[in-house]
Design a protein that fits this description.
mainly alpha; Serine Threonine Protein Phosphatase 5, Tetratricopeptide repeat; Glutaredoxin; 3 domains; 16 helices; 5 strands; binds zinc ion
Length: about 375
Amino acid sequence: MTVDALVPRIVAFGFVLLGVVSWAPDQGLAESPGAGLGRQGWEAIQSGKIQDAARAFDEAIAANPQEATFYLGAGLAAHLQGQEKEAQATLQQALRLNPKLTAASLLLGELAYRAGDLEAAIKTYDDALAVEPNQAQIKSRLESWRKEAALHSGFLQNLSPHFTVLFEGPAEQRLAAAAVDALEAAYWRIGTALLAYPPTVITVVLYTDEQFRDITRSPTWAGGVFDGKIRVPMRGALNDPRQLEKVLAHEFTHALVKSLAPRGVPTWVDEGLAVVFEMGDLKWAERLARQGPSLIPLPRLHDGFLSLPAEQVPLAYAESALAVRMLIERGGIPALTALLRDLAEGQEFAQAFERRVFLSYPEFSSLWARRVRE
Ligand SMILES: [Zn+2]
C-alpha cells in the first residue's frame, strides 16, 4: 500500500495556492478601468465561487487588457477549474505585462512542475528572481528543483510508447526494464477498464530510497508519489517484482484520474481507485475496516489524509478501497467515469454522485458502513 496522500509536497503547493487566493490587489488600482470587476473576481475566488470569478476577471480584462493582476486572477480561476493549459497561458500573459508579479510566477512555476515540466518550472522561477531577487519562497523552491534536475541529468532513460523511465545507472537496467513492462501492462489494463488513457507520455523516476526521501520529502514509509511525475523508491523491488507492479499501477491510476478530472475528486475516490487497480485482494482492507473501534466517515476522507492521526491512515486507505469497490459494484465503471467527468466540469460531488449511481451519497455511505462492519 502506498501512502502518497500524505506527501508534504502537496501541502507546500497548497500554501502557494492559499497565498495567491488570499492575495487581493488593491494598491493603485482603485480608480483604473475594470477595478471594480477585478475586486469582484477576488471576492468570488475567496468565497469559492470560481465560475463567477472567471467571468468577472474576463470582463475586467476586456475593460482593461493591460492590467496584469486581472490575468493573475483569470489564471488562478482557470487552474481552480482544472484548465491547466489555459491557466499557464494566462499567467504567462500576466508576467509579460508585469514581470515583477511574484504571485503569478509562483503559481506558474508550480503548475509547470506539477505538469511534469521541471525545465519550464526552473525557467519561470529563474526569470522571477532576475527581476525580484529577494523572494525566499521562490529561492528555496528553485534550489530543490535544481537539485532534482542535476540528479536526473545523470540518469539513464528507458523509453516505451507511453512512458519515459529514468534510473540511475547500469545496475538498475534490469529493474527499469521490468518497470517499463509493468507500466505498459498497467496502461492497457487500467486504461481499458476506465476507457481513458493519459494524453501525454508520463515520466517515471526510479530512485534509491535516499534520493526518494530527498526529492519528495516524503515519509520513509511512502511507497510512491505522483506529482506530475511518478516517483518510486526501488526499495526491495528487485526481490519482489509484484510489489513494484503494485506501486506502479497505483501511481499510474493517480496519473489517469488526474488527467480525467484534474479537480474535485474526493481523496477516497482517488486513493480507492488506485488501491483497487493494484489488483491485490482486499482482505487486509476488510479486516482493518471490521476490526477498528469505528469507521472514519467517508465525508472526512475528501481532502487528503493529512489531517488524520497517523495510526488511522491505513484504515483510510482500506475504507477508500472498499468504498470504491462498492461504488463499482453498484454503478459499474461507466457510472464511475461519468462521475469523474462531472467532477472535472466542476459539479458538486454529492449531486453528481446521486445522478450517476442512483443512490444519494448519504445513503451510499450508510449502506457501505453497514456492509463493511458486518
Ligand atoms: Zn495513492
